[in-house]
Design brief:
Layout: E1 3-8, H1 14-25, E2 29-34, E3 38-43, E4 46-51, E5 61-64, H2 73-89, E6 93-95, H3 98-105, H4 107-116, E7 124-127, H5 130-140, E8 142-146, E9 157-160, H6 164-175, E10 178-182, E11 189-196, E12 199-207, E13 222-226, H7 230-243, E14 247-255, E15 258-265, H8 271-277, H9 281-294
Parallel strand pairs: 1-2, 1-5, 5-6
Antiparallel strand pairs: 3-4, 7-10, 8-9, 8-10, 11-12, 11-14, 12-13, 14-15
The structure holds adenosine-5'-diphosphate (ADP) and magnesium ion.
Length: about 300
């Protein structure tokens, strides 16, 4: 029997539960790998997994649902290394790979990769220099300051040109480096496209709640069905390839000048698209892993 691990940090998460169920429906053993509960012991005699609840040896494949957010360097590094041990030491098929997840989670590096892939991006400046930051804010007018490793809309601050001066110095001191992006005037929503393998499966609008500029579902945004156009498919698939992901949620925003790519998430929640469109992307993710295993 195939044995597939699912890396997660919240045992009752909808997406993790759906992935585990789809693995079991294929007649394979599904093992929840809660990153808070596993570790390794390293001795001269070898490396041993430490896990109270499950036997995590002999894994054929691993799907990473979620690595968990942390600003503790040791913790986030160990979590990624635990995934890398499967890749390096066990030659296990891991989806998404640790490299793809890191490329996607890093808003600076992912934008460099997107730029090289000629994807349409809002003007963005990353700098540790206060003067450069001030100039960018003046040029952009309305600006979002985003954490480089951020998600769920957390830590994003909107600065209007006129109010930036006192705030930007304090922000730079606090963050060490600033990611500044021109605010794209939009119809009060963004678009998330779900890609698995070489296929875009569906898309949702995420409607921004009143009084906010963030449309993340975790910030009160609401999912609505969005028609998947050829342009959306093409942009989302190119973005997914640019970071080397096998599956992703790709965020785009509509402007008067057309679509812009905002970011990519290589550990996306599958709940919104299930609610809005009835599409279970976790089934396709599990299918893709199984086709990889047969090779
Ligand atoms: N440049 C932008 N212009 C307008 N709205 C934006 C822009 N960037 C982000 N947003 C809004 O903020 C939300 C969160 O931004 P995003 O870059 O996706 O960060 P996170 O990783 O926290 O989700 C987006 O879903 C969108 O609603
Ligand atoms: Mg986002």
């Amino acid at each position: 029997m195939r044995k597939i691990g699912v890396v997660l940090t919240e045992a009752d998460d909808w997406t993790a539960t759906a992935i585990l169920k789809n693995i079991r429906d294929k007649g394979a053993e599904a093992v929840a790998l809660n990153l808070a509960q596993i570790g390794v012991s390293i001795t001269n005699a070898g490396l041993y997994w430490l896990n109270e609840t499950e036997d995590i040896n002999g894994m054929d494949g691993v799907i990473v649902r979620d690595v968990g957010i942390s600003n503790l360097l040791d913790l986030i590094s160990v979590k990624f290394d635990l995934i890398r041990i499967f890749e390096i030491e066990r030659h296990t098929t891991v989806m998404n790979s640790s490299v793809a997840i890191q490329n996607a989670a890093n808003k600076f590096l992912s934008f460099v990769l997107f730029q090289r892939a000629h994807l349409p991006l809002p003007p963005t400046v990353v700098t540790a220099d206060l003067e450069v930051a001030k100039r960018a804010i003046e040029d952009f007018g309305s600006v979002l300051v985003k954490p480089i490793f951020g998600s769920q809309g957390k830590g994003i601050i909107k600065l209007e040109g006129y109010e930036y001066a006192p705030k930007v110095a304090a922000l730079l001191k606090d963050r060490g480096v600033l990611y500044l992006q021109q605010f794209v005037h939009n119809p009060g929503r963004d678009i998330r496209v779900f890609v698995v393998g070489e296929t875009a499966l569906g898309a949702i609008y995420r409607v921004t709640p009143p009084g906010s500029f963030r449309s993340n579902l975790s910030q009160g945004g609401s999912p609505r069905k969005c028609k998947l156009t050829e342009e959306l498919c093409e942009l989302a698939i190119r973005a997914t390839k640019a970071v080397g992901a096998d599956f992703a949620g790709v965020d785009l925003i509509e402007s008067a000048d057309g679509l812009y790519l905002l970011e990519i998430n290589a550990t996306p929640s599958a709940r919104g698209i299930k609610l809005a469109c009835g599409i279970d992307v976790t089934e396709k993710i599990v299918d893709l892993l199984f086709t990889r295993l047969k090779r």
